[in-house]
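Obj: model holo form, ligand = zinc ion.
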Amino acid sequence: MNSALIIDDDPDFRALVGDVLRAKGWQIWDADNGETGLEMAREHRPRIVICDLLMPRSNGFHVCRALRDDPHFASTRIVVTTARGYDADRKAAYEAGAEEYLTKPFDLKQFSALMEKLSAPAAAIPGSTTFLSRDGGSWVKFWGVRGSIATPGPSTVHYGGNTSCVEVRTKGQIIILDAGTGLRQLGRALTQEFKERPLALNILLSHTHWDHIQGLPFFQPLYQPNNRIRILGYEGARSGLFNVLSSQMESPHFPVGLKELPSNVEIEELRDMEFTVGDIHIESYFANHPGICVGYRISTPEGSIAFFPDNEPPHRLKHTSRKIESFDTARTAFVKTESRKLAEFIKNVDVLIMDSQYDAQEYERHRGWGHGCVDDVVQLAVEAGARRLHLFHHDPDHDDAKITAMVEHARSLAAAAGSPIQIEAAQEGMKVQLAPKA
Ligand SMILES: [Zn+2]
Ligand SMILES: [Zn+2]
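Output (holo structure tokens):
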């Protein structure tokens, strides 16, 4: 049975709100001050605590904090109801642990609907709280597109100089792919959009090379106490995920340690190659890149997104020198199989974001570095039947003109292959809306 405890020193308010919920079959307790309210909460463990701010014997902020400090109330929902609409109070209430802040008087129908929503069973995976309306469909937005190191300056203003960071919104969730320097701007945008509302974010890391994690210490939502930020990735070749992420924030590299951050940060090492965030299905695939590095494929109701920020396609046989060609037919077969497996993983993907750092000439000098040649990436994308390809992980030495030339070259390759694939270079600020399925 749903249950709520109403803590408010106004008896009329307690009766009014209590009656609305009792009519829906809820069990209701009430208290006229904070101290008694806390005692009753400990005794009855209500699903929701509805709490006034200004009350005798323990104010509402104190009640929120006391509940949040007690692990028994980890899944208890807290709603603050107050006659005061000050922004500072609202902020302080969220910081104290409230999830909703309602200014009296409020619409009782809306209130009742909110209570039903909050009383629903908690999501199975922490950090998967739904914040967004699901009406916006699914989309992808680029915040950092560069590889290796951030390259600000006049020659990169068009495509952008920040390193790997992509935002995905689908089914009411925010999923962030990589935490390169582009993460900083994304953090500012999220703070602006959601103000003090608590955020639950999921950051999926492809790997922990600098260009994929350096934005993390500068991500504003990490500094808001009510946010829950879940960082997912795989154990590295030499060190666990937590160690790698905390070491970049240790003195003398950074003044604030990972453990000192005010938000709730959970770092989770993935073990399986398939998992869910909320009810979003995600698969991973080990990329061809030094150390442990993965690509992800995210399924949304409007289509799929594959993210391979760092990857050297394994199928580059046509450029292999004669010496290597004769080296081993078994190796050739192996490379072909690897290539087929990767094409299978990204088969018919709607949006493919893939490392295309080098042109064919540059690639000859960088073979085995773990990055893609645009020719190979186009071939792979066409073979796999991808609908849209975004060249990604732009070389720090490539200016805007060079990247535009690479896009044109990529399009001509696709046209020559008779493929309808759309090709663009990933560009900071570019948003790609996934089209609803017919
Ligand atoms: Zn990289
Ligand atoms: Zn890398």
